[in-house]
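Here is the promised in-class demo. Please do not try to memorize the tokens; focus on the logic of going from shape to residues.
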């Protein structure tokens, strides 16, 4: 493919030319739309694999407990494998580093085993939340807990030297000016080629980069897939539940219906001596906001959102637009 024209026009790569399509699957509407789009485009489920990066890893702290079970339920329904990957210690472990290296990346393997990469880097200190910034060098959560985790899972498996791999991610231009600048198609950061080393042929496609939100919901409605509970409880985007970009209304909702998580985050923020957002503490932000009415009205969904297993149907008929659709777009930029 001519990469210059690809990034301008956003053409569809020749999907039949890839031995596998690897979709970074957060469980949010955009990665779900990517999965449905691939299936509609005729990619066999047997060639698709979902990779979910578990931000909390082995220490619950910032994310939705229901996200991983929801992702597994969706993957099971469509008959595609889902591989979980995470950084040892997760968000909390990275934030608490005091002279230790960043934790190893752990990743589930097709044979049921667990791969491991890294964990022997230079010592480092954090002691504070990531900065609310588009710059991934200071907003370390996105890079350390997601982008580098996927890259390590690919680099750590010899099978990716065999044939061609298409990595698919669901960023959309509408989400932020930063994301608008992303290319639609490019070589993936794990691609290698030439020289004496074997080539790892990996391309990166963002198939819904130019889609408006309405198009995403239309596709999900056509399949009737139950959206992640975040949307049903009033969130406009699926991020970590206590995402550093959280709006006053989101912090007010967390305080109202997920009080243990709110207290934990507020205590860690106070202990660090620095607020997550420059303008105010999470307590001050929550004071400014109003809890999402949908969350206050549905204690049953709040309970499911806290659960480590998924008990709702994957397909909802009739399907209805969740309360958070077209709402606040707070989240990573
Ligand atoms: S969703 Fe928010 S808190 Fe979670 S990794 Fe992304 S930027 Fe960080």
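The designed amino acids, position by position:
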């Amino acid at each position: 493919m001519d990469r210059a024209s690809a990034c301008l026009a956003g053409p569809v790569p020749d999907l039949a030319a890839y031995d596998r399509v690897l979709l970074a699957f957060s469980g949010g509407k955009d990665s779900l739309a990517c999965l449905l789009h691939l299936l509609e485009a005729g990619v066999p489920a047997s060639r698709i694999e979902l990779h979910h990066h578990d931000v909390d890893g082995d220490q619950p702290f910032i994310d939705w407990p229901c996200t991983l079970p929801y992702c597994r339920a969706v993957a099971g329904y469509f008959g595609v494998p889902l591989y979980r990957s995470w950084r040892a210690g997760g968000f909390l472990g990275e934030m608490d580093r005091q002279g230790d290296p960043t934790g190893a990346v752990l990743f589930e393997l097709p044979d049921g085993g667990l791969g491991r990469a890294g964990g022997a880097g230079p010592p480092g200190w954090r002691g504070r939340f990531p900065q609310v910034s588009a710059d991934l060098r200071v907003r370390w959560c996105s890079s350390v807990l997601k982008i580098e985790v996927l890259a390590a899972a690919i680099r750590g498996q010899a099978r990716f030297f065999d044939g061609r791999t298409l990595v698919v991610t669901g960023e959309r231009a509408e989400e932020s000016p930063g994301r608008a600048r992303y290319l639609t198609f490019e070589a993936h950061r794990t691609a290698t080629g030439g020289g004496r080393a074997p080539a790892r042929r990996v391309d990166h496609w963002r198939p819904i980069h130019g889609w408006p939100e309405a198009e995403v919901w239309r596709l999900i409605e056509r399949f009737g897939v139950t959206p992640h509970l975040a949307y049903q409880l009033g969130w406009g985007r699926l991020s970590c539940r206590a995402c550093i970009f959280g709006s006053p209304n989101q912090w007010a909702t967390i305080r109202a219906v997920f009080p243990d998580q709110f207290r934990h985050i507020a205590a860690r923020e106070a202990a660090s001596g620095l607020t997550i957002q420059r303008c105010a503490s999470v307590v001050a932000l929550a004071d400014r906001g109003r809890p999402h009415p949908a969350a206050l009205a549905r204690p049953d969904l709040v309970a499911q959102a806290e659960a480590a297993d998924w008990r709702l149907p994957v397909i909802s008929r009739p399907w209805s637009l969740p309360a958070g659709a077209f709402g606040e777009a707070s989240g990573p930029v």
